UniProtKB/TrEMBL annotation:
Keywords carried by this UniProt record: Membrane, Transmembrane, Transmembrane helix
Highest taxon listed in the record's lineage: Eukaryota
Name used for this protein in its record: Golgi apparatus membrane protein TVP23 homolog
Compartments where located: Membrane
Keyword Membrane included in the entry's annotation: yes
Recorded family membership: Belongs to the TVP23 family.
InterPro entries, per the entry: TVP23-like
GO cellular component, one term: Golgi membrane
Any Pfam family hit: DUF846
Organism: Eurystomus gularis
Lineage: Eukaryota, Metazoa, Chordata, Craniata, Vertebrata
Gene Ontology biological process: protein secretion; vesicle-mediated transport
Main location as per UniProt: membrane
Lipid bilayer topology: Multi-pass membrane protein
Transmembrane segments: 26-46, 93-114, 120-139
Length: 183
């Protein structure tokens, strides 16, 4: 059981939404409201991606840059043979929070757009982006985590072989240089 992780999974999400709805009541400063909500959204993104996803449902995702500078997305799912009733409830809370909040931010987008409160539009777009990025990552984890595990493992062994390949390249370059000098 992970009650603290469950609490923070919902706390930052709900706090950002409540602050967005009632920020005008507590502060006249647009900048203070904007920064507060953006910080809550950022804390939510980080905590869901790095902590609650691992603890509550055994999923994680990240972006990895290889030696060539290419970006690779890695989606991982932990094999769990049996799920206890408490962790099943936590998993439901995780998925409901993950799905409902981007829908709410999408509703905020249309209400902001139609009410012509364009200064809030950037914040709402940031909320949609951060929320849907986590949703997208965890859906990929859930649907294809096993396939990515083998990719991660194979990449690990390939990178363990890098010093051998680099030594081989250096010796080949050395041979080419001698070949050029001899001709």
């Amino acid at each position: 059981r992970h009650p603290l992780a469950t609490f923070f999974h919902l706390f930052f999400r709900v706090s950002a939404i409540v602050t967005y709805l009632f920020c005008d009541w507590f502060s006249n400063s647009f900048v203070a409201c904007f920064v507060t909500i953006l910080l809550l959204l950022s804390f939510d993104f980080w905590s869901v991606k790095n902590v609650t996803g691992r603890l509550l449902v055994g999923l994680r995702w990240w972006n990895q840059i290889d030696e060539d500078g290419k970006s690779h997305w890695v989606f991982e799912a932990k094999k769990v043979p049996t799920i206890a009733a408490s962790t099943e409830a936590e998993a439901r809370i995780f998925w409901l929070g993950l799905i409902i909040c981007p829908v709410i931010w999408t509703v905020f987008f249309f209400s902001t757009l139609f009410s012509l409160k364009l200064k809030w539009l950037a914040l709402v777009i940031a909320g949609i982006s951060l929320q849907t990025a986590n949703l997208y990552g965890y859906i990929h984890c859930k649907l294809g985590g096993q396939r990515s595990n083998s990719r991660v493992t194979s990449r690990f062994f390939v990178t363990a072989d890098v010093p051998k390949r680099q030594t081989r390249r250096i010796s080949e370059d050395h041979i080419e240089e001698h070949g050029k000098k001899g001709t």
